[in-house]
């Protein structure tokens, strides 16, 4: 008899994206946690996901975690850019192709000028996210880069119960391209294979009977990862996907984009469910 293979994909469950309550803002190493880009309601999302992992512990066969992993110097961080006065852009500044052509913004390293012109033109022509300057976040080896405690603890308990380990996929290390989705960068670079399409997540779906999806943020990295996956999957495999909608939330101000994404997914056959709707097996 065929054993049902259930996988759980958790996208970027890292401290920099969670609105951690004040009384929780100290980790085991006595380091203060100050999230760079907290998503509203994400701490409750983390609690619900942790409960889900605990309740489904016996039936989950694989856990895959993506980690947003950046350097201070990054195309979506302020120090990559400056205006003619040498000032860096404020967080949430949008930089268009025309802004660069007009000299409103240019890369601090002028050797990157041709790259950023091609980059922003490509984003705009392909309908990708506009280049936005995010608060500096998920710096490799920082507290903000680590998995939030409720989810980390739940995964560790699952690992101890099942005698297997999670699989981690790191994304975003290349400073010259954004990397929302877990499958490929927004602008894959010909000289860096880690920015090019990685079939791991599509393969995970093919090899599973059902795949639950969670993480942050619904409007960006969750949406981008799921869209990149389904782009490579036949319809029957798309139906294996379930977004645990009560464990993921949009970045503030991007609620409409998140809702539009959910509606697109429903139309394609992706399941949308609350953790409480999933039967314990």
Keywords:
281 residues, alpha/beta, Rossmann fold, 2 domains, 6-stranded parallel β-sheet, two-stranded antiparallel sheet, 8 helices, 10 strands, 14% strand, hydrolase activity, hydrolase, Isochorismatase-like_sf, Isochorismatase_Nicotinamidase, Nicotinamidase
Description:
One of its GO terms (molecular function) is hydrolase activity. With 281 residues, this protein is of the alpha/beta class. It has 2 domains: 6-72 and 136-277, Rossmann fold (3-Layer(aba) Sandwich); 78-132, no CATH class. Helices cover 30% and strands 14% of the residues. The protein has helices at 42-55, 97-101, 113-125, 149-162, 200-207, 218-230, 235-238, 255-268; strands spanning 6-11, 62-68, 81-82, 94-95, 106-107, 131-132, 167-171, 210-215, 241-244, 271-273. The strands form 3 sheets. It has a 6-stranded parallel beta sheet, sandwiched between helices. A two-stranded antiparallel ribbon has the order 3-5. A two-stranded antiparallel sheet has the order 4-6. Helix 6 (218-230) packs parallel to helix 8. The longest helix is centred in the N-terminal third of the chain and has 14 residues, at 42-55. The radius of gyration is 19 Å and the shape is globular. The two termini are 16 Å apart. The mean pLDDT is 95.
What does this entry show, briefly?
With 281 residues, the chain is α/β, with parallel strands linked by helices.
């Amino acid at each position: 008899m065929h054993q049902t293979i259930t996988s759980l994909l958790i996208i970027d469950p890292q401290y920099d994206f969670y609105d951690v309550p004040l009384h929780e803002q100290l980790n085991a190493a006595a380091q203060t946690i100050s999230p760079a880009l907290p998503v509203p309601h994400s701490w409750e999302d983390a609690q619900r996901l942790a409960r889900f992992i605990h309740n489904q512990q016996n039936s989950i066969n694989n856990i895959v975690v993506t980690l947003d992993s950046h350097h201070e110097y990054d195309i979506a961080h302020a120090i990559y850019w400056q205006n003619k006065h040498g000032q860096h852009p404020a967080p949430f500044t949008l930089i268009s192709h025309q802004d660069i052509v007009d000299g409103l913004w240019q890369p601090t390293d002028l050797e990157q000028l041709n790259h950023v012109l091609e980059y922003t033109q490509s984003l705009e022509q392909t309908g990708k996210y506009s280049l936005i300057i995010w608060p500096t976040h998920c710096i490799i080896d920082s507290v903000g880069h680590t998995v939030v405690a409720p989810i980390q603890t739940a995964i560790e308990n699952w690992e101890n119960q099942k005698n297997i380990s999670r699989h981690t996929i790191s994304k975003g290390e290349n400073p010259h391209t954004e990397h929302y989705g877990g499958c490929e960068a927004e602008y894959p670079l010909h000289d860096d294979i880690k920015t090019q399409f990685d079939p791991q997540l599509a393969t995970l779906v093919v090899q599973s009977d059902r795949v639950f999806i969670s993480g942050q943020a619904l409007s960006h990295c969750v949406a981008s990862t799921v869209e990149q996956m389904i782009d490579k999957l036949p319809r029957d495999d798309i139906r294996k996907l379930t977004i645990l909608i009560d464990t993921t939330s949009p970045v503030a101000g991007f609620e409409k984009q998140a809702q539009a994404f959910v509606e697109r997914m429903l139309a394609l056959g992706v399941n949308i469910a609350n953790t409480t709707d999933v039967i314990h097996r």
